[in-house]
Each structure stands twice: as C-alpha cells, then as structure tokens.
C-alpha cells in the first residue's frame, strides 16, 4: 500500500505500463486468457483463509468509518462469496471470446469485401466502491476482452482488493501474459482518482461503480470517455392483474434479498385496483424488517407505515426501506417512473400480457422485467459470467457491462486493386 507516493508520477507509471500491456493483450490467444482465469480462480479458492483475514481488516476499517450495515454487507467476504468470485472467473473463461468476432460483412458492387470486426477498447480504468468482488469481475472481463485494466477500489476495501489482485496476477504469471495486464492503484489517496480522469493518453474508457457523488464527480471531471452508472432507483409496479402470491414473493426478494445492491427495489407502485390487497402486499415486507414509507392509502393499510415525502421518490436507500405509492394503472406507473427513475431497472408484476407489453415497451430504463425480481439486474444472471456495472447511459454500453460491451470494432476492407474513380 502506497500512502505517501508522488501520485502523478505513480499514475503515469501505471498508465504507461497498462498501455504497453494492452498492445500484447489485444492479440493474446483465447486459450491463454482462459487458462489464466482458471488459475486465478484456483489461487483464490486456495487462499480463502488469508483473504478473509485481509477482509476482516477492511471490515474493521469500515466500522470505524461508521459505514451502514448495508455497506458492510457489500464489503464482507466469506467462504460462499469467495467461491462465487472464483466461479465467476471460471464462468467468464468459458464464454466465447469476443475479440476477432465478425459482427457483419458484405460485398460492394466494385468487388470490395467489408467486414466489421470486434477489437478491444484498449485500457480500461475502473473506479469503484466497497464490493471487493468487483476487483475480480472487472479484471476478468477486461482481460478476456483483450484489455488492460487499471483498478481503483474504495479505501474501505483496500486490503481485500490487494489480496484478490495478488491471486489474479499469480494466476497468469506463468502463461506469458504481460505482468501489468491488471494493475491495482495501491493507495487510498483520492488524488489518484483525479489523475486517472486526466489520462486520456493512457486510459481509453473510465467505468465508475459507486454512489451518486462518485459518479457525478467522474462525469464532471473526466477527460476520458465514461460509461455512466448512476443510482439504482429501481421500481416494482404491481398491476391490477397481478397474482398476489407472486407479487408478494417478487417484492420481498426485490427489496430484501440484498438491500445494498444497485438492483434492489426502492419504490413499489400499486395499481388502485389492488387496494384491498395492500395489507397483504406490505405486511411481509414489514415483518421482514423493512421500513415502509407510503401515501395515505398505504398508511391506512398498516399502522406501521410511515409517511412518504417527495424526496423519497428520488432516493436510493441501499437499505431496508421502501417507498410505496398507489397509481391509476400501468400508464400512471410508467409516468411516475419516467420522472423518478435513474434508468436502471424496473419490473411489472402482471398477468395481463397487454399491460406487461405496454410497460416493457414504454418504460425507458436499461433493464425492464415482467414477473421477475429487480435483483436479476446482474451480468452473471444474464449469462455474461459477470459484469463491471450496469450502464444507465445511451452511448456504446447500456445495461450489464460484459465482454461485448468492453470491445469496439473496426472495419476490414479487402480488395483486389480497386481505386476510387
């Protein structure tokens, strides 16, 4: 860990090494990349005790900083979570390599043969908070897509990130991949983030993964293109046609499975036709320890409900809190979402296919679901092996950022002596 380094010099060195590594990685054999990920997974599984010990230092640091219980949950590692991290590396190794894939090809009347082919982005900078699994997921995805990566994790997870990085590097050290394919910024100094944002000669894309303040700072200050990932103000809409048991199960999972993830539901909208079922919808959440903040109808359904405020509709709680509102049908739900959503993930619970299709077509978020929990907003659940984040912007990447989203393309044009008249 480097606390007193000359940060500009440190970051320039890291950037230069990453750029050189990216030139080699862009042409690395798929088999070599895959074997390196499997080896890294084995190194993680063989080092569980040491990683948990490192993680405990981060937990102590986080508690000293008075992190919320939800944030501590995001930070904590155990045997099961380490196995999941390792399995994600193996899953990514088994995915098709996007580099070199032909996206489209066609012939011109003059005999030119044109192909659009996937190529790596180059060097990717990932700036993230709390969750140490991002270190492995981001590194694996970038490596598999032929990119070098510079990782800057949160100060609270430095020990965990450092140990995971050590396992990753050991996994491909003997396979001929560049030593600096994956680099971890070894300091808690926030000046390192500022330097990354001013390194367009070395970094091609910045991917932020964290709270609003972090993402807004990066968007405002970066001279490097950014894959935006703002808050996860996610909604569940319970339509009048919903199956009540299904709605209760989905709502409970969407809010309470893991409250600190960006795919956790923060607002539930209920069709007025379901008014008599409001007590049955909210009681399981309240019984599970979720605080409900509701409008007058919702408050009347259970005395444990607290009054909602206008601010609640625009709040990502990342905690066991859910705002609840009655709306007049699917169109009103979509209108509310269009104003208050962060563009992340929304779900409709309905048996009426017409209402469901209206919702899926009208709601303009990166992920929209029908009769499924918002907590499926995850690259692993989408079959991508893992993800670096959920991009809520519109340019290049949207939704889970997986292997394909970490590539761009170039045109290969093959001729036989053609000249332009």
Overview of this structure, please?
- With 421 residues, the protein is α/β, with parallel strands linked by helices.
- The protein folds into two domains: 7-227 and 401-414, Aldehyde Dehydrogenase, Chain A, domain 1; 234-376, Aldehyde Dehydrogenase, Chain A, domain 2 (3-Layer(aba) Sandwich).
- The protein has 14 helices and 16 strands.
- It has helices spanning 7-25, 30-46, 48-64, 69-75, 79-94, 133-144, 158-172, 191-196, 212-221, 244-256, 278-287, 296-301, 329-340, 353-362; strands at 102-107, 113-120, 123-128, 148-152, 182-184, 205-209, 234-238, 265-271, 291-294, 306-307, 321-327, 345-349, 367-370, 390-391, 399-400, 407-414.
- The strands form four sheets. A seven-stranded parallel β-sheet has the order 10-9-11-8-7-12-13, with helices on both faces.
- α6 packs parallel to α7 (158-172).
- The longest helix is centred in the first third of the chain and has 19 residues, at 7-25.
Which percent bin holds the helix content?
40-55%
Oligomer: single chain
Q: How many domain regions?
A: 2
- According to CATH, the homologous superfamily of the largest domain is Aldehyde Dehydrogenase, Chain A, domain 1
The CATH topology of the largest domain: Aldehyde Dehydrogenase, Chain A, domain 1
Q: Compute the CA-based radius of gyration.
A: 23 Å
Number of helices: 14
Order of helices and strands: HHHHHEEEHEHEHEHEHEHEHEEHEHEEEE
Number of strands: 16
Report mean pLDDT, rounded to a whole number.
Answer: 94
Look at the helices and sheets and give the structural class: alpha/beta
β-strand percent reads 15-25%
What's the story with the biggest beta sheet?
7 strands, parallel
CATH top level label of the largest domain: Alpha Beta
Low-confidence stretches: none
Tell me the overall shape: globular
CATH architecture of the largest domain: 3-Layer(aba) Sandwich
**Termini separation (Å)?**
61 Å
Strand order of the largest sheet: 10-9-11-8-7-12-13
